[in-house]
Amino acid sequence: MSPLYKKLLLWFCAANIAVLLVSVFVTDRIGRYVGNSEPDWDEIATQTLARYESEGLLGLAAQHELLKRTRDIDITLFRNGDNLLKRRLPPPLRPFLPQLLAADELVLRPGRDLWLASRALTTASGERLQFIAFRGGPPPHARRDLLLLVQVALSLAVIAALGFVLARSLTRPIQAIQSATRKMADGDLAARADATTTARGDELGALARDFNHMAARTEALVGQQRTVLQDVSHELRSPLARLHLLLELARQGATSNGSQQLDRAVKEVSRLDDLIGEVLNLSRLETVLPGMTTVPVDLATLAQEVLDEHALEADARQLAVQLDTVTAYVDGDAALLARALGNIVGNAIKFSNVAGAITVDVSTANSIARIRVRDHGPGVPSAQLDKLFQPFYRGDNAARADGHGLGLAIAQRIVEAHGGQINAHNIESGGLEVSLVLPRIQ
After folding, report:
1. Is the pLDDT at 410 greater than 90, yes or no?
2. What fold, for 38-139?
3. Which of 89, 212, 260, 303 ranks highest by number of CB atoms within 10 Å?
4. Residue 91: C-alpha distances to residues 97, 99, 162 (Å)
5. Which helix (H) or strand (E) element contains residue 242?
6. Are 359 and 372 in contact (CB under 8 A)?
């Protein structure tokens, strides 16, 4: 049994026991107060006389049984010193009987729980009677205490059962989340809270769902990091091997040959430097994006600036660049958004046919802003579209242009950090269109 389980059970039981004891005490006090309050003897005497006059001794006996059963009061009528009911009087009453019979109206309380009353009555025919009443006697303390003990015992049993169920229902989901957390800490990134816990409609169910979402995100990020590390190792191995070979040839070869090999080595070093720079940028985005500073960014102005930066590249390939924009503001980091759009425009320039065209379109719809970048290149095989945004993936078109396959991966992380989405699809007339969708400022 966990400490939390014990704590919940003990506090639940303690609270309910306290309430139970208070209620028992108050109920007992109220019962004693009601039981010790003085009855209305005049009313009882009048009712008794009326019933005797209408029904005789049978009516008097019935009145006695009724009062005894409902109010624990013994009554009788005396005529000339004789008890009309012919019943033995209660022992506590006997010592006071002469005094009661001699009085026209008398109420005695010889003990805390004893009431004795006497009233002189006259019937309609002029007959004189003496009403005698008695309530009390030794209180059934033993029986009452026994009943209270039974009540407390049954209440404790119910409280313990309910407390067990309540504590179990609260601790089981916590234990499930705790178990999944320990599994994750031990390296099992696939650990999740079970479906029974996540199906709960309370805060614990919400906590389990949030934990599963966090665990899935963590597993995906760790998986991506592992993939990136594997791909980086693969990408770095090739230029390093070529560098080693070129330097060896330059060391052993002739002067002319050595110069050529060193030129190629410089080129490989530049490619290696670019690759390391892109990998560093990709890794930095994991920590920079969550705490980035955001301001209103005009996408039309941003798109024009990005195209201006890539104008020389487009001119070198004799590409016609068309920009169609509307005013659209998003909340974000202008430098990061420019980097994402720049990577996409750069890819479009690289893979477009020479003397072709590129179209950049900025539009709005309801609460979103959309940027479309379209080229007129060969497009991408349908089976490879979903892989375009994976780090280091270049597909079948890798031979058409230099690159490391990180540009679209970086663009995707930037767009998703801004609460948006990025996707790519082929155009039927030829070419690829990459679309960025961002929440816009109304």
Report:
1. no
2. Beta-Lactamase (3.30.450)
3. 303
4. 10, 15, 49
5. helix 203-252
6. yes
Closest C-alpha to 229, from 240, 237, 219 = 237
Amino acid (one-letter) located at 22? V
CATH class of 192-291: mainly alpha
Q: Give CA–CA dist 275/267, Å, rounded.
A: 12
Show Cβ contacts of residue 265 under 8 Å, excluding neighbours closer than 6 positions.
Answer: 243, 246, 247, 250
Separation of alpha carbons 277 and 279, rounded Å: 5
Provide the residue count of the chain.
Answer: 442
Q: Mind listing the pLDDT tens digit for each residue in 207-234?
A: 888 988 888 888 887 777 766 666 666 6
pLDDT value of residue 235: 66
Residue 440 and residue 420: Cα distance in Å, rounded? 10
* Phi and psi based region of residue 136 (left: phi greater than 0; alpha: psi -120 to 50; beta: remaining): left
pLDDT, tens digit, for every residue of 272-327? 766 666 666 665 565 445 556 789 999 999 999 999 999 999 999 999 999 999 99
109 forms bridges with which residues in the sheet? Answer: none
Closest CA to 99 of 89, 107, 87: 107
Same fold, 38-139 and 192-291: no
**Cα–Cα distance between 20 and 13 in angstroms, integer?**
10
Of 4-18, 68-82, 94-108, 273-287, the poorest mean pLDDT is in 273-287
Residues 176 and 194 sit within 8 Å (Cβ to Cβ): yes
What is the per-residue pLDDT for 259?
A: 65
pTM of the full structure: 0.46
Fold of 293-439: Heat Shock Protein 90 (3.30.565)
- Residue 83 or 138, more confident: 83
Q: Are 369 and 346 in contact (CB under 8 A)?
A: no
Q: How far is CA 47 from CA 59, 61, 134, in A?
A: 11, 13, 16
* Integer Cα distance of 220 and 189 in angstroms: 9
Q: Which residues contact 372 (CB under 8 A, 6 or more apart)?
A: 359, 360, 361, 363, 433, 434, 435, 436
Beta carbons of 407 and 386 less than 8 angstroms apart: no
Phi, psi of 342 (to 5 degrees): -65, -40
Structure tokens belonging to residue 147: 């009943």
* pLDDT cut 90: percent of the chain above it: 32
Task: Yes or no: say if 238 and 214 are a contact pair by the CB < 8 Å rule.
Answer: no
Going from N- to C-terminal start, the domains of the chain cover 38-139, 192-291, 293-439
Q: Using CA atoms, how far apart are residues 201 and 205, in angstroms rounded to an integer?
A: 6
